[in-house]
Amino acid sequence: MKHLIRLAAAMLLGLAAPALAQEAPAVLEIGGARFHVPAPAGHCSDTPAVKAYFEMQRRGAPDAVPDLVFMPCDASDIFSSGMYAVMVFRQGPAMERAALLAELRETMPNADREMAAVNARAEQRYSTDGITVQSGIKAIGVDTMCGYIAGLISMEIEGSKVEVLMVGCMTAVGGRMICVYHYSIGSDPAAAAAEAPLVRRMAESIVAAQ
């Protein structure tokens, strides 16, 4: 199960007001499976900021491009607070949620060494071309819906510092492992863990279509 934690954590740097009109649920078709993914309130998946994110991600990390990204509908840049990302994993056997969570309950309490290695690889990979990255993502627990990772990502880009809080949910829907991430601007790692209900609610809203 360590590879599942590693896969999920590898996405952590996949980047990082009143509700507006709600867009229709997105439909993902992956390997013959279809998923309906509703947009969080006030968020959209087809905006200039989202397109800019995907362009940046495809250039910088083409193997870690999420399937869907939602940003506030009025966001003007990719560092806007409140970004969600969704990733459906293509590889591996079918995985039901109960089995996935049971394995995560066994492995996540001892995942500190694995997460430290993931953070180190992420820092080395992304700390190039005038960008310095420090990543402090940790496994924080498992409930009846998700296994969670959370923490602080600090980036220095051409002398300007950006701190991003990230929380991620690993779960299974329709026999496939799905990860949901939420990124927000902030500097307190404890605040990232406190946002776990955001990714849980989004994970609960994803439906496997027949």
What does this entry look like structurally?
This protein has one domain (2-209): 3-Layer(aba) Sandwich (Protein Transport Mog1p, Chain A). The protein has helices at residues 2-10, 48-60, 97-107, 112-126, 189-194, 196-205, and strands at residues 26-30, 33-37, 43-44, 68-72, 83-88, 131-142, 147-157, 160-173, 176-185, 207-209. It has a seven-stranded antiparallel sheet with strand order 3-4-5-9-8-7-6, sandwiched between helices. Strands 1-2-10 form a three-stranded antiparallel sheet. The chain is of the alpha+beta class and 210 residues long. It starts with a helix and ends with a strand. It is globular. Helices cover 30% and strands 35% of the residues.
What is the secondary structure topology, with strand pairs?
Blueprint: H1 2-10, E1 26-30, E2 33-37, E3 43-44, H2 48-60, E4 68-72, E5 83-88, H3 97-107, H4 112-126, E6 131-142, E7 147-157, E8 160-173, E9 176-185, H5 189-194, H6 196-205, E10 207-209
Antiparallel strand pairs: 1-2, 2-10, 3-4, 4-5, 5-9, 6-7, 7-8, 8-9
Helix pairs in contact: 1-4
Q: What is the CATH third-level topology name?
A: Protein Transport Mog1p, Chain A
Sheet/helix structural class: alpha+beta
Number of strands: 10
| N- and C-termini, Cα separation | 28 Å
CATH architecture: 3-Layer(aba) Sandwich
Uncertain ranges: 1-21
Number of domains: 1
Please report the first level of CATH classification, the CATH class. Answer: Alpha Beta
CATH superfamily: Mog1/PsbP, alpha/beta/alpha sandwich
Fraction of residues in H or I helices: 25-40%
- How large, in whole angstroms, is the Cα Rg? 16 Å
Nearest-integer average pLDDT: 81
Shape: globular
Which strand order spans the largest sheet, edge to edge or round the barrel?
Answer: 3-4-5-9-8-7-6
Question: What is the number of helices?
Answer: 6
Give the biggest beta sheet: 7 strands, antiparallel
Beta-strand portion reads: 25-35%
User: What is the chain-wise order of helices and strands?
Assistant: HEEEHEEHHEEEEHHE
